[in-house]
Structure formats: structure tokens, C-alpha cells
Amino acid sequence: MVGIDLVEIDDVREALRMHGERYLRRIYTEREIAESRGRPERLAERFAAKEAALKALRQADEAIPWRAIEVDGASLRLEGQAAELAGNRELALSVCHEGPVAAAVVVAR
């Protein structure tokens, strides 16, 4: 299965401006926050990767906590419900940002 997602970087910038720490702590793990260093484009890549992972696992309608999916460089770490959905499938990840958007593709095999 393949999942893809695009995120407007300005949307993440606005969420940071409006909600600050509350937004960060709800969506991102401590490691993701530290590695992104507050840069909206890096956070948008991670958000897109989380969405793409849910799409690849075909359970986008099931309530999975955002922090159960962690983006670590070019790989994903899953825990809890996200890990259960993945089962023994491997997930491959590619992320990027260009201009106003961040993109991610996840392949589950």
C-alpha cells in the first residue's frame, strides 16, 4: 500500500503562531520537536509523513494518536495502535519540501 500527503507550510506556521507549545506537544514527539528546531518546513514534513503513514496502513478513519508515529530522518517509528496496524509490514518513507508545501510518501510492504 502507498500513502501520500501534502501539507501547506504556512498552515503549520499558523498553528505554531496560534497554539505554540500546545500544538507541538499534541502532534510531535520530543525527538521530532528537537530535530525540527522550530522550523515550520521540517514540522510540515513530519506532519505529512504521519498522514501518509496512516493512508498507507489504510486506517485513516481510525483514531491513532499523532505521537504514536514518529518520524526519525527517513524512517518511521511506530508504537501502540500504529504499530498494531503495521503488523510485520515494513514502511519506507520519503519526505521533502519545496516552496510552500511539504510532501511525504510512505510505502507499506
Care to describe what's here?
The chain has 109 residues and is α+β, with helices and mostly antiparallel strands. It has a single domain, classed as Alpha-Beta Complex (Ribosomal Protein L22, Chain A). A three-stranded antiparallel beta sheet has the order 1-5-4. Strands 2-3 form a two-stranded antiparallel ribbon. α1 packs across α3. The N and C termini lie close together (7 Å). 36% of the residues are buried. The model has no long low-confidence stretch (mean pLDDT 94).
List descriptors:
three-stranded antiparallel β-sheet, 4 helices, 5 strands, Ribosomal Protein L22, Chain A, 109 residues, alpha+beta, 46% helix, 28% strand
Strand portion: 25-35%
Second-tier CATH architecture: Alpha-Beta Complex
How would you sum up the major sheet? Answer: 3 strands, antiparallel
User: For this structure, what is the CATH homologous superfamily?
Assistant: 4'-phosphopantetheinyl transferase domain
What gap, in angstroms, lies between the N and C termini?
Answer: 7 Å
Parts with pLDDT < 50 across at least 5 consecutive residues: none
Class in CATH? Alpha Beta
Global structural class? alpha+beta
What is the number of E strands?
5
CATH-assigned fold name: Ribosomal Protein L22, Chain A
**What share of residues is helical?**
40-55%
Strand order across the largest sheet: 1-5-4
Q: How confident overall, as mean pLDDT? A: 94
Radius of gyration: 13 Å
String of helices and strands:
EHHHEEHEE
Question: What number of structural domains do the residues give?
Answer: 1
Compute the number of helices. Answer: 4
Shape: globular
